[in-house]
């Protein structure tokens, strides 16, 4: 039987964590939610709504691409293999809990936590989010964030 020392585990975890941190630097920042993109579009393109129905800009590809921006307007949550069915209740709840775990562990200003917030804001009905926020304030939310 082979026994491993604590130094072996620490060394192997250290090298694995270094690889993970190097990989995370390769990814770009977290995209904004659909609601945030619409708000930016409203501020940026006030003349977009003022166009007449027969205006030639409706049919100009260059004009529409300029209005859309570099990333496009739509963003969706990426596919998560933990939720192969189309029922979003558990998916929504888990990302809400993941967001609060992230801000508990890393702090509210951490940029990486924004991804979880974007996913639950896009997946969850606003009524559920209000209920969960009220439960958090009252201290009766059914999940722990310190794990």
From TrEMBL:
Keyword Disulfide bond: yes
Subcellular localization, as worded in the UniProt entry: Mitochondrion
Major place of residence: mitochondrion
Keyword field: Disulfide bond, Mitochondrion
GO CC annotations, alphabetized: mitochondrion; respiratory chain complex IV
A Pfam family recorded for this sequence: COX6B
Superkingdom of source: Eukaryota
Protein name: Bm7068
Organism: Brugia malayi
Gene: bma-cox-6b
């Amino acid at each position: 039987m082979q026994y491993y020392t604590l130094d072996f585990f620490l060394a192997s975890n250290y090298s694995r964590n270094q690889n993970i941190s190097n990989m995370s630097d390769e990814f770009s920042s977290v995209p904004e939610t659909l609601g945030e993109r619409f708000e930016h579009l409203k501020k940026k393109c006030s003349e977009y709504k003022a166009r007449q129905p027969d205006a030639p800009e409706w049919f100009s590809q260059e004009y529409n691409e300029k209005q859309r921006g570099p990333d496009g307007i739509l963003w969706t949550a990426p596919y998560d293999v933990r939720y192969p069915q189309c029922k979003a209740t558990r998916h929504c709840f888990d990302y809400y809990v993941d967001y609060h775990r992230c801000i508990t562990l890393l702090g509210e200003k951490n940029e990486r936590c924004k991804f979880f917030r974007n996913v639950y804001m896009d997946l969850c009905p606003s009524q559920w989010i209000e209920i969960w926020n009220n439960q958090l304030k009252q201290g009766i939310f059914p999940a722990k964030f310190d794990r």
